[in-house]
Specification:
The structure holds two protein chains of two kinds. Chain A is an all-alpha fold. Chain A folds into two domains: about 45 residues, no CATH class; about 210 residues, MetI-like (MetI-like fold, Orthogonal Bundle), CATH 1.10.3720.10. In chain A, about 75% of the residues lie in helices and about 0% in strands. In chain A, α10 runs antiparallel to α13 and α12 runs antiparallel to α13. The longest helix of chain A has about 40 residues. The two termini of chain A are about 30 Å apart. Chain B is mainly alpha-helical. Chain B has a domain of about 190 residues: MetI-like fold. Chain B is built from 16 helices and two strands. A two-stranded antiparallel sheet of chain B has the order 1-2. Chain B starts with 6 loop residues before the first helix and ends in a 5-residue tail after the last helix. In chain B, about 35% of the residues are buried. The chains are: A mainly alpha, B mainly alpha. At the A-B interface, α2, α4, α5, α6 and α7 of A face α1, α2, α5, α6 and α7 of B.
């Protein structure tokens, strides 16, 4: 934006807009503010003072120590499931997308239609029969069940986005690699992957988020408390420790921590990936 | 576009087919098979194991007589309509951010906007469940301290709702008449980060000269929205609308977490998906649950078809 565009008509102050935006964003962030400030109070402090954070000298760090003990196993199970299924989705979707994007192979159109159809088909009827299927594979009460479902569930969307992306890459790159005698796998590894960092990153975050937030499937699949992922773990906590709010909120905060860490490292990429309309599809 | 390839060359490149095998296997086993299996089992009395009994269309005729299922459809209908209105704050915020002069602020607001996304939506829901708590809940505290409670009590006396009383904590998730309002209120002010960012992406195509021309003509901010901004994000709005409606119709995680598997007091928060879940995993009527799922499936498929036919979303 150059100086002349700002000068004429749009001189009116932006202040009212900023105020409105802060108001909306403030309300939107209120639950997280409450989570953090309550997580450092005990129940007595919370009853006496609902809204304002406690003084730093009164902070009850014990909440975190106790919450950590309860929730750490759930977090580590979730990390295993989310990381593995995200890696699995991206690996198989990259291969699949490469197949569709590189050449119009005979039969490719039929397969593509089979993928697209799944985008239209609502998945609502599946949970019941998926349960029976996992039962027959002896996968109930295992983390593998969640990993495999995570990988298969992410296929369609990731392949769709990646195919469009790979098709837009300059064709000469592939041709040059082919001249050098690179196999398709090498072309994927040395041509596609280095160029698709932002898109792979965005898909990875979305996949990870989806896996981290899932609780219906884990609830149905998992029986042993040692295997609980964060989703089931929090439901279980919600039932058991209703009284100590500080501890519950601390557990919530710890459950969000891995995502916060990822976000800090990928913020720029993520905001750009979503804003550029990469996922407009 | 993918390059065309001759039959002969395709034969030489047969290895390429190996690339798509994992994906095809996965969707065949974990997406197509369960769907077909659900269609098949909807004609059976089935408890999820090996034993099953063919009962023809009995499950479907049971659906027609299933009061809970039909009232759950009304509930979800109300929630769908409410969710459509809940898109307004996202559009409003996107337009506000877009109209800012400073690119830097635009960027930072986007970052702040994405912040809630890093808190698992599950956690957000639990925090709201805590907000709704009658005795400790922050919602009641906010209403009491701001004086809105008095207003609600007065309105209650006028309209005879029978739910708000002075000095009595409001049980948002315990009072049947308040369950649907609670399901609508949660998440206030209903700003969806993904929605706002997608709208912003649409708004980016508006050049500054359009605004300058509008300013010279003395166009009011609201007219600008109506005639410049809204038409440009129409595609995105439609896309979000479709995703939202389908998502709401299918979803039941929200109701499950806030109210439990029975849809809360009086079953007022029961939605079709939750009823399916309930029949399968609580009542053990897997066959009937398949039929319920299938019914929903066809209903949503019909909506998708209507949408593709009449509401064109340009790519």
């Amino acid at each position: 934006m150059n100086a002349s565009t700002v000068s004429v008509g749009r001189k009116a102050s932006d202040l009212p807009k900023h105020v409105l935006i802060w108001l909306v964003l403030g309300l939107e962030l209120l639950p997280f503010y409450m989570m953090i400030q309550i997580s450092l109070k005990n129940n007595k402090m919370f009853f006496e003072n609902t809204w304002l954070p406690a003084l730093p000298k009164d902070w009850v760090w014990q909440n975190y120590a106790e919450a950590l003990q309860i929730i750490l196993p759930f977090v580590s199970n979730s990390v295993v499931v989310s990381v593995t299924s995200t890696a699995g989705v991206l690996f198989s979707a990259l291969l699949g997308a490469y197949f569709f994007a590189r050449y119009k192979m005979p039969g490719g159109n039929v397969l593509w239609a089979a993928f697209l159809l799944l985008m239209l088909l609502p998945g609502v009827a599946n949970i019941v029969t998926l349960f029976a299927l996992l039962q027959s594979f002896n996968l109930l009460n295992t983390l593998w069940a969640l990993i495999i479902l995570g990988i298969s569930g992410g296929q369609v969307f990731c392949i769709y986005v990646l195919r469009n992306f790979i098709e837009d890459l300059p064709k000469d790159l592939f041709e040059a690699a082919e001249m050098d005698g690179a196999s398709h796998f090498k072309q994927l590894w040395h041509v596609v992957i280095p160029m698709s960092g932002p898109i792979i990153g965005t898909l990875a975050i979305l996949q990870f988020l989806g896996s981290w937030n899932d609780f219906l499937m884990p609830l149905v699949v998992l029986r042993d408390p040692e295997l609980f992922t964060i989703g089931v773990g929090l439901i279980y906590l919600d039932g058991e420790y209703v009284k100590q709010w500080g501890r519950v909120m601390a557990a919530f905060f710890i459950a969000s921590l891995p995502l916060i860490i990822i976000f800090v490292f990928t913020m720029k990429l993520f905001v750009r990936g979503l804003s550029s309309g990469a996922l407009k599809g | 576009m993918a390059l065309p390839i001759s039959q002969k060359k395709a034969l030489l490149e047969w290895k390429l087919y190996l690339f798509v095998v994992p994906s095809v296997l996965l969707i065949a086993v974990f997406a197509y098979y369960p769907t077909i299996s659900a269609i098949y089992h909807s004609f059976f009395r089935w408890g999820g194991g090996d034993a099953k009994e063919f009962i023809g269309l009995k499950n479907f005729s049971d659906i027609l007589a299933d009061r809970v299922f039909w009232s759950s459809f009304i509930t979800i209908g109300i929630l769908v309509i409410a969710n459509v209105f809940k898109m307004v704050p996202s559009i409003f915020l996107a337009v506000l951010i877009h109209r800012l002069k400073s690119d830097r602020w635009q960027y930072w607001y986007r970052v702040i906007l994405v912040l809630p996304m890093i808190v698992p939506s599950l956690v957000t829901l639990f925090i709201w469940k805590f907000f709704f708590d009658p005795n400790l809940g922050v919602l009641n505290a906010a209403l009491d301290q701001s004086g809105f409670k008095t207003l609600l009590v007065q309105m209650d006396q006028v309209f005879g709702w029978g739910v708000f009383f002075e000095g009595v904590p409001t049980a948002w998730l315990g009072e049947p008449a308040l369950i649907i309002p609670a399901l609508i209120i949660w998440g206030f002010p209903w700003v969806g980060a993904v929605g706002v960012l997608i709208f912003l992406a649409g708004l980016q195509s508006i050049g500054t000269e359009v605004y300058e021309a509008a300013d010279l003509d003395g166009v009011t901010p609201f007219q600008k929205f109506l005639h410049i901004e809204f038409p440009l994000i129409m595609t995105q709005v439609r896309l979000m609308l479709v995703l939202l409606i389908i998502g709401t119709l299918q979803g039941y995680g929200l109701q499950f977490l806030l109210l439990g598997e029975n849809g809360g007091a009086g079953g007022r928060g029961m939605v079709p998906g939750l009823w399916m879940f309930n029949r399968a995993f609580i009542a053990g009527e897997f066959g009937y649950a398949c039929a319920l799922g299938l019914f929903l499936f066809v209903f949503i498929l019909g909506l998708t078809w209507i949408n593709n036919k009449f509401v064109r979303v340009e790519k």
